[in-house]
Model the fold of this input.
Amino acid sequence: MQIEPQAFDRVLSSMCTEPHPAARDAAERFLATNPGDPGTYPNVSALEDDAVALLGEIAGLDDPAGYITSGGTEANIQAVRIARERTDSRTPNVVMPESGHFSFQKAADLLGVELRIVPTDDRHRADLEAVRASVDENTALVVGVAGTTEYGRVDPIPALGEIAHSADAMLHVDAAWGGFVLPFTDYEWHFGHAAVDTMTIDPHKMGQAAVPSGGLLVRSPDLLDELAVDTPYLESTSQATLTGTRSGAGVASAVAAIEELWPAGYRSQYIRSQNNAEWLADALEKRGYRVADPTLPLVAADVPRSTFDALRAKGWRISRTATGELRVVCMPHVTREMLASFVGDLDRLEVR
Ligand code: 0PR
Done:
């Protein structure tokens, strides 16, 4: 095989990162295990309990229940599925701000629920009035995002919880990306603060675990029962996951990364990433670009298309928001030197 994986030295668009060495090692050791078959692979199954307990600690969940998913998409689909199973409505809907990830579109398609997308406010957060106006007796789920994909914003989770519960709907928090940085901020995002029922929190993003390692957490174990199907050929009697066979690598590397980094390692990484984001935002502002305030380690700036294309041509892996802004995610592999070199390339382009 000739092809090498993408090196991380110019990757500014990804929400994945280089796994922590301990996570890489654990992933390799558990590569051939299948936590979907706990009767045959009890060790990785026990590790999954540890992973859920650790994720629960990070997300303020007292009696942690959930599982390690293939990623945020699967966790979001399963959250919608739980809500659909719980509602009495025959025509259920899900209310989500436009900043929600496109995985909810997949969930709605697969599960036959209506997805009601409501606008965000001028700070790119869910517009509470719009959410209130969209919720009705058929609403099964309200989605809040804690660390949005495009601007890194955190929706007002407690207020969304109130709206959801007054309509007898559930509240899902998508902290797929934000979950490993938010514990070090003042945001009200977790199970302890608000009426959160389900949450997506992915070790393979800011958690520095290997891909595939997503996380679904639920407030109480009975919510997982909504997902369970009987498994006649397995020693275990039921399975709540969406996939059948799945990689033990994700489970083991999540535990290894979290044991290594929670909380001190994640805290110092958050501070490093946040400082980098503020440094880049500042550098771009000084050059005359309009920059969305990096409230979490993610920078969005109004850079012309031609400049964006020229930077891509220089090898920078960058992406754009729906409205065309340059988007840089300050993941753990993104260093100040990388950003300085990026800004240097930008300056050289501007000179010409
Ligand atoms: N929830 C949020 C808030 C996310 O940002 C993402 C992924 C998901 C759920 C889905 O997670 P999985 O991909 O693990 O299923 N976020 C973007 C994505 O990969 C990140 C992104 C965006 C990466 C733009 C590259 C890029 O150019 O879809």
